[in-house]
Amino acid sequence: MKDGFHRPVLEEQAVQYLIVHPEGIYVDCTVGGGGHSLAILQSTTPRAFLVGLDADPEAIEHAGQVLAAYPNKLLRQIFYDQLELVLYESGRYPVSGVLYDLGISSHQIDETRRGFSFQGDGPLDMRFDPRQQQGAAEILNGYDRKELERVIREYGEERHWRAIARDIVARRQLQPFHNARDLSEVVRQVVGERFLNKSLARVWQALRIEVNQELARLTRSLEAAFAMLEQGGRMVVISYHSLEDRIVKNFMREKSRDCICPPELPACMCDKVSELKILTRKPLQPDAAEVRRNSRSRSARLRAAEKIVPYQGGKA
Ligand SMILES: C[S@@+](CC[C@H](N)C(=O)[O-])C[C@H]1O[C@@H](n2cnc3c(N)ncnc32)[C@H](O)[C@@H]1O
Question: How many domains would you assign to the chain?
Fold first, then answer.
């Protein structure tokens, strides 16, 4: 790890797929510790330009230091579904590549005060952007039982969703949720010791997705990124769990399909054309050496695709 903030995953592969043009404009939607951004700047010329986004101000501040030697960049604290706004404001479009390295950085997990870890006794927070009102505690103390069930079932894929939601509601009638231990105790009571860590990881993932509206933002952002790409430009996405990977896979598949008419129609009526070429038939995974060096890379899946239709934005 360069400085302990975060070790980039599948770095070489991401840059290889992303960079089509040494003087292009590239967007790193999840700057984090700046590892991938640095690799992009090192693999391009000073005439290239990097736009780096992150919802977390600590990431933007840190990346500013890591990338200090490069004037050809713009870093902005913003959710990545707002990327069009940043590109239009800065006049940096259309772009040659957009990278996503989803999820959380090691810094976010390791900083107990951010509440991303179920270990220890941090606050129930998990907001990427601390300006946002609602953290995990507000959800646990405020959502009704049905909403809690939905979050834990859909975003955690936790099989004890019903009992966990029920016990959250029962416990908060006695005392509101404040910190990680309050919640891990409830989960422990329901699932027992044997698979406790797996269930805790799933419940924490569910809350994190809900707090940051991760799946809705990803869906919106992929569309926006595609729209801002030039013809021949690339999208590279590294995901860490099946829910986000499914969104990426379906997005790329849908954009890469031509005619979607039912087979019984004698001729095409839909006029749909393929807009994206998938470059990774199967997602790339880190090799054993990378997983040994960095255990947090073990669930990573990289998908890449190339835009094969012209940029059509109104402001070009
Ligand atoms: C895995 S880390 C990225 C690490 C980075 N590639 C590096 O090399 O250091 C993911 C980052 O994405 C940010 N993030 C997650 N969802 C986001 C969103 N919807 N909008 C903007 N940033 C987001 C997180 O704050 C976190 O810093």
Answer: 2
Question: Do 28 and 94 fall within a single domain?
Answer: yes
122 Cα to the center of ligand 1, angstroms: 21
- pLDDT number for residue 314: 54
Q: Quick check: is 188 in a domain?
A: yes
| Contacting residues for 122 by C-beta, under 8 A, at least 6 apart | 112, 113, 114, 115, 116, 179, 180
Closest Cα to atom 27, ligand 1: which residue? 32
**Of 212, 230, 254, which marks where a domain is finished?**
212
Q: What is the mean pLDDT of the chain?
A: 95
Around ligand 1, the residues with Cβ closer than 6 Å are 6, 8, 30, 32-36, 53-56, 59, 79-80, 101, 103-105, 128, 212, 214, 217
In the reported structure, the alpha carbon of residue 32 is separated from the centroid of ligand 1 by a whole-number distance in angstroms of 5
Query: How far from chain centre, in Å, is Cα 80?
Result: 9
Q: Tokens at residue 284, please? A: 């790339």
pTM for the full model? Answer: 0.95
Domain extent, residue 197, equals: 119-212
